[in-house]
Specification:
With about 400 residues, the protein is of the alpha/beta class. The chain is about 30% helix and about 20% strand.
Length: about 400
């Protein structure tokens, strides 16, 4: 009988401000709270797994299931950050105490000069910008000149936007590879992101986004699983987030619906190991655009597919649903928010209704997964398997 873990990250679906949220400018942020208070939230499977039972949330007890079928908790981020890279690294077992570099005033001239030399193209923008707004404001000039739109956000990222008719997608990917080589050491941002767009002004971003991350500096649970002979399957951005390290099979991001359909198909296959899934639409399409109805609908739509996935789980399967940070669609600005994240655990051998309280680090998930597979690895976390296993 196969032993499998399905680990699903609802990108940016935080569950309320952390104690240090004010240090990040995020006091009062509450991603799930904004969705639930909209009156549009309808996710019975998440509810049955214990979402409304999680301690410390603004919505606790407002829509509790009659019988909770999973174990549940909220998790604090111990790393210094609120972005995809450090969030995933931490849940995989590696806390990042030092923040990755950010560039609120744009990148220094020495970086721009290296990018120009490496790519043979001029640079536009070089500011902190919304991804949808930057192609509205600079897209026409880019099309006319062929110069690259380089911008950043509050996160540790260097993003390069280009029209696919002006910079073919493979060239854009090659440009981002070169940017990744440049952005090392003190300028080692968490991600270089290719942001292709198409059409006529005001232009539309395409699904061919690609992320180029730093490799984790230390061993993660993915490395430990691979070394022990298990398979790691990545769906969505997982391979990008870990720079390919120990991700043996990968299915690139095709949007939440397609990524979940892929995951449901994987559940029909026979393998021993981890299926690690990132569902980015909540963050990339709806969170940054502060679209509460669409963000909430994305969670509701996921919940329908979640029900189908749960039906396919075997006796030795464990399902974990969590998030990597917040991106409150009801909050000011357009950036990620420093929040706790939910963690819901389900399986035929997982106890029902176990309240794990508030965990002190996302890394407890990696420790729990490692123990589930009888690995010695624990990373920077503490396993809670003994508390939830039948």
């Amino acid at each position: 009988m196969s032993k499998r873990v399905f680990w699903i990250v609802l990108d940016s679906v935080g569950c309320g401000e952390m104690p240090d949220a004010a240090d990040f400018g995020d006091a009062g942020s509450d991603t799930l709270g904004s969705c639930i208070r909209s009156g549009l939230f309808d996710a019975p499977h998440l509810t049955n797994l214990g979402l409304f039972n999680i301690e410390g949330t603004s919505f606790r007890d407002t829509g509790k299931a009659d019988e909770v079928i999973g174990s549940y908790c909220r998790m604090a981020e111990k790393s210094c950050g609120k972005d995809t890279t450090v969030g995933h690294w931490e849940m995989a077992g590696m806390i990042s105490p030092t923040p990755l570099p950010t560039y609120p005033n744009g990148f220094p001239q020495e970086i721009l000069d290296k990018l120009k030399e490496a790519t043979g193209r001029d640079i536009l923008c070089n500011k902190t910008y919304s991804g949808t707004e930057v192609i509205k404001d600079y897209g026409k000039e880019h099309v006319e000149t062929g110069a690259l739109i380089v911008y950043t956000s509050a996160d540790s990222v260097l993003q390069i936007a280009a029209h696919e008719d002006i910079v073919p997608i493979e060239e854009l990917y090659d440009i981002c590879h070169k940017a990744r080589e440049i952005m090392q050491g003190e300028h080692g941002v968490g991600r270089i992101i290719a942001r292709p767009f198409e059409g006529e002004w005001p232009f539309q971003r395409t699904v061919r986004r690609h992320d180029y991350s730093l490799q984790p500096a230390r061993e993660t649970v993915l490395d430990a699983l691979k070394a022990a002979g298990y398979v790691n399957i990545g769906v969505g951005k997982i391979k990008d987030i870990f720079a390919g390290k120990s991700v043996m099979v990968s299915y690139s991001n095709k949007g939440n619906d397609a990524n979940m359909e892929r995951t449901i198909d994987i559940a029909d296959s026979d393998f021993d190991g981890l299926c690690y899934v990132n569902l980015v639409d909540t963050d990339m399409i709806y969170g940054h655009r502060r679209d509460i109805p669409a963000y909430t609908k994305a969670i509701n739509d996921f919940d329908v597919q979640l029900g189908r996935l749960m039906e396919k789980l075997g006796d030795d399967d464990m399902l974990i649903i969590t998030a990597d940070h917040g991106c409150d669609p009801g909050f000011r600005g357009t950036d990620h928010t420093r929040e706790y994240v939910p963690c819901l655990i389900y399986g035929s051998k997982i106890r029902k209704g176990v309240d794990l309280g508030t965990r002190q680090t996302f890394a407890d998930m990696a420790s729990t997964i490692a123990e589930y597979f009888d690995l010695e690895y624990r990373g920077d976390g503490t396993s809670f398997l003994a508390e939830i296993k039948e």
